[in-house]
Amino acid sequence: MHVQHHNAHLSRSVQAQAARLVLQANLAYGESNSNGLSYVQRLKARHECREYLDQALALEPENAAALGLLGRVEMDDGQLEKAHALFNASLNSQPGQAQQYCNLGYWALKSERPALAEEYFLRALECDRQSAAAFGGVAHAKRLQGQFDVAYLHYRKLLQTGSHWDSVYSGMLTCAQHLQIHKADTDLAQDAIALLRKDGLPHQEIGRFVGAIIQQQYDLDNPNAEVFLDAAAEDELLILALQKTLMPNAAVEELVVMLRRAIMAEVAQTASLRDELQPLCLAIAEYADRTGYALAAEDDEERLATTINDSIVAQFAVREPQEALIGSLMISAMYGALFHQSFAMQLGQWNLVDWPLAMQPMMAASYYSRAEEEAIKQNFDEKAEELCLAKTDVPQAWPAWSQLAYRTETSLKAVMAQELSLNTDNPPATLRILVCGAQSGQRAMELAQYLNDVEVIAVDESLANIAKATRMAQSLNMDNIVFWPWSIAQRFVADGHQVHWVEVGRLPSPAMTELSLAALINSASIAGAVVHMHTSMAEQTAGDKQIRRLIAEHQLQPSRTSLRQLRRMVLANKQDAVWGNLLKDDDFYSLGGCRDRWFRPQDAAQLKELLALVSNEVEWKLVKARDEDGHSLATAPVQRQIQAEALGSEVQSLMGQNLSVYFQRRR
Q1: What sections of 555-590 are H helices per DSSP?
Q2: What does pLDDT average to over the chain?
Q3: What pLDDT score does 3 carry?
Q4: Which helix (H) or strand (E) holds 28?
Q5: Is 478 helix (H, G, I), strand (E, B) or coil?
Q6: How far is CA 397 from CA 153, 235, 441, 597, in A?
Q7: Cα separation, 27 vs 100, whole angstroms
Q8: Which among 67, 281, 398, 479 would be 20 to 30 A from 504, CA to CA?
Q9: Are the C-beta atoms of 382 and 463 separated by less than 8 Å?
Q10: SMART domains per the record (predicted)?
């Protein structure tokens, strides 16, 4: 009797000790997922968490909480089978745990089985109706099954009940891109305001969503709808949208042009800019800059803008104080970059912070950022090609983006092991990524920012893109990425430097006659290197082909005037089916985007050559293929198709199918 009592007492003390260890493990696990810590610190916390769990399980092998948390650690490390076994062991030990059904839900999401994940999250909700984690899991599962409207409403509910997690905002933003909006809806407008106000989200990705809401709010499809300037000047959604996105919507572009004209008409009449109109005026100026000044203006507006610019020159001549210039600069910036004006040199006497706070984003876009980018361009030989262009004809960077997408920091080695099931034994401490056709650098910077073991070389043929991306990287204090023109990348590879991962973005244009992308990648990639590419080319609408024919026929040059005229032609005939797909494309709403796709289109020959290179099965192995929705495909049929195509077989071509494919170099 005495012995039994002693054993029961001992097991209670052992249980208490195990519970303390699990508590410490939970704290360490929380640290390992903290965005405030560096990746190395988070790995250290993950290691501590494992140690505490090992000790707890040595004392109490069936401790349900310890088994479940160890499953989370294994899942984070990509060990999905071990994780699955541990979650089930935890449930065997203690049935009915909402937490473990949630864990199994996330395991199913990681295994690309969203329907199964939804079942697990619903089981978790049966165990605990209040579980925000389970409700959020249902939202993620719905989103990954393409049920964007249902997932969106789940995310909205989570925000309303106080779950302001980054993953909720990020999921809601992803869903918003897929919603069709057919009527004015105040809830949607409030959602859009919440997303635009949230820092750290890639607001550029919801331009279409926000534009559709504004189109309905202002009844822009109704030719008799009245728009009041004072009401627009107080519209928080409109002002945030102009400040943070580019809206690929012809009706919204017309609205912005109309509001700008109304401001200019009032200024012409009263010779002053009312305080109430200043936030809208500044937002339109930022928006106009983002479009590369694509917005059409009538002749009388252009004349008034010129008069205002002349008056600014006169104000500088008589040394008027800074405050006296402010209204005129705001109006001038709605029509052209301040950096391009004849008084640009005089603006340089002030730093950005010397201007009123509300003006600083507009002044940065219209003047200071452009000045920085111009200084960066001077480092490259390609700058010589711009010297003969008028200031307003110098190409502008595209795409226009302001924020990197939300990601959790990890390592390229982990991605190669977990996503592609590749062996990553004995890799160097730092892996080198080559991003070909990086454009203005968002994707390249996301790789550099979220992978802690890489250095990134991003290459593009547009000097404007290289300058913008370099400036953005400097502003983010990133020291593991460089942006180069192709000429420097070719010299770098010719000198014997090699890379471990190649990311193919926008393809070079036919103007790049000296460049073979396939040859460059063949020389640059070491044994074991991965090449990630897409099998389709964008920018191939009927409208694009028609415009390229016009350009060739009339030998047009890529000047601002030509680009605006081509756009005006499309907008004047927007009911014509030939322009339908072009009008839906983000590129059309920026002169930079139009210039790229019409005067520097992607070269299909480069893609064919690249597909021919990777079709050599002796040298390359297809390790993963995804469809447009991100679902993994069986690699064998895709590999056979690539092989047949390379041999000239009449199979359906992979080109144009928009697959995302990953190849690994065998030797």
Answers
A1: 560-572, 580-583
A2: 92
A3: 37
A4: helix 2-32
A5: coil
A6: 36, 29, 10, 13
A7: 18
A8: 479
A9: yes
A10: TPR
